[in-house]
Amino acid sequence: MALFDLPLHELRTYRTASVAPDDFDAFWAKTLEEARVHDLDARFEPVETGLKNVEVFDVTFAGFGGHPVKGWLTLPTGTTEPLPAVVEFVGYGGGRGLPHTHLLWASAGFAHLVMDTRGQGSGWSDGATPDPVGSGPAHPGFMTRGIEDPESYYYRRVFTDAVRAVEAARSHPLVDASRTAAVGGSQGGGITLAVGGLVPDLAAIAPDVPFLCDFPRATTMTDRDPYREVGRYLKAHRGRTEQVMRTLSYFDGAHFAARGRCPALFSVALEDQTCPPSTVFAAFNAWDHSDKEIAVYDFNDHEGGGPFQQAEQLRWLPARL
């Protein structure tokens, strides 16, 4: 598809019309306080993978509600001193997959933890973390699970898991907690933004074509999933738009971005119909740090920069860690 959103010069100044709830910060402080009542109990079990240049650990830690969340920790073989760490979050429908699919960051000399996403991992890569919390009526997918109230919304659990994943990574003796970054693409990019707004002392973040941003615009601009799940839910549940948008306002990447306090490298694709460019720029323009960049891919859809953006990250991130 050709360009369908605002022209680039307008995107660079675009701001979301969404307003953060008055109790946004209190809501998230309470959520994380409740999660931390449970012992993090981060465990790292060595696994044999046949890989010679990295060591892999099967990770389990307590996320939202104390529920066990899985992940992989990968270290360069022979690591003896603490390393800078990259914590990665995966895209919609995917899970942590298999260890040999996550070699980039350890190959570059980082400790790398990839978090499994609760309840997902059956779309394009497998996962091992169930979501034991139910919800009211929801459209198939994850976008409307518990959407009746911020307390019950699915992404409250996921974002809390993600903060705890950073804490789990930092708890490992071969991780330098002061040099920790968060990265991810699409849903993983949206989770990265949430972590960037909730963890005040990250060294950097790198969200690629991030999802979960500027919900009022995204849910009415694209007819592509996952945002369209919200529209189909509201088509069935007439009259609940205000209630749903109130819930989503607690999870909007643009509001987390306004609380960001570290360097950030974004990416956006101008033909992206899954995460429209204006929704990405809503978060980028709100990101509250002077050291920020955005890579623009003029003729790409939701694949964004792909390996070209990975190369950008390998150029940009080491200087911040």
TrEMBL record:
Q: Where along the chain is substrate bound? A: Y92
* Gene3D superfamilies, per the entry: alpha/beta hydrolase (3.40.50.1820)
Q: Which InterPro entries match?
A: AB_hydrolase_fold, AXE1_dom, CE7
Q: Please indicate if the UniProt record lists Hydrolase as a keyword.
A: yes
Which leading EC class covers this enzyme? hydrolase
Q: Please name the Pfam families in this protein's record.
A: AXE1 (PF05448)
**Keywords, A to Z?**
Hydrolase
GO terms, molecular function: acetylxylan esterase activity; cephalosporin-C deacetylase activity
Q: Residue limits of the Acetyl xylan esterase domain?
A: 1-317
Q: Name one GO biological process term.
A: polysaccharide metabolic process
Q: Where is the active site?
A: S186, D272, H302
EC number(s) reported in the record = 3.1.1.41, 3.1.1.72
Q: What is this protein called?
A: Cephalosporin-C deacetylase
In its UniProt entry, the species of origin is given as Streptomyces jeddahensis
